[in-house]
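Backbone shape codes
____________________
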Amino acid sequence: MNDENSLIEENALVFIKTHKKEVLERFCSPPVCHPVTNPISLFMAGSPGAGKTEVSKSLIKKFKNIPVRIDADEIRVICPGYTGTNAHLFQKAANKGVNLLYDHALHNNINCIMDSTFAYGGASKNIERSLKYSRKVEIWFVYQDPVRAWEFTKAREAREARRVSKDVFIKTFFEARNNARAVKERFGSDIELNILVKDYEAGDEELYLNVQASELDRIVYSRYSEEELNSKLL
């Protein structure tokens, strides 16, 4: 990383650290998001382009009290110097903002939706933290055929200049499923795993509620290995 990019990355992180109040007000304002008696933590999972954000926004209707929706992409946008194509330089800042909002939701009994791929290393820890706060925990895994999901990802890049490399897409596609399976195996009935299989070609979708870890690979079966998917994606 050159000096200019290092400075952009550092400035973004400093911005989040020094604007905590503004971040909370922007994404978790008290008039909208407020404490509830039995808070819920809902975690999205799945590859880029699968339709997670669309689903997460529709799931807001599931809550009687509006949740804080935590999306790293939306946190990047407020950072100075962000253009979309340089999204990788804002990962640390986005993670800081995500943790800030998640901590706030936990400490204040606020419903939350973590809108991410679930492919990150701290996924299990975040689940564990919610359980320690005696919150109901749900994982919503959104599956779309990876070739089609990649087409949506590329279309979004052209539209919003938000770039996801092919290598990152492939890694995320497999890691999201692996993490969801591992977390369900670890926490069992303490959490709920729901799977939404979307088929944009046919224009329909199928919902599987409260499935077991052993059912995940059957429901979201991929006919591609990592090598095959790499050669398949253009």
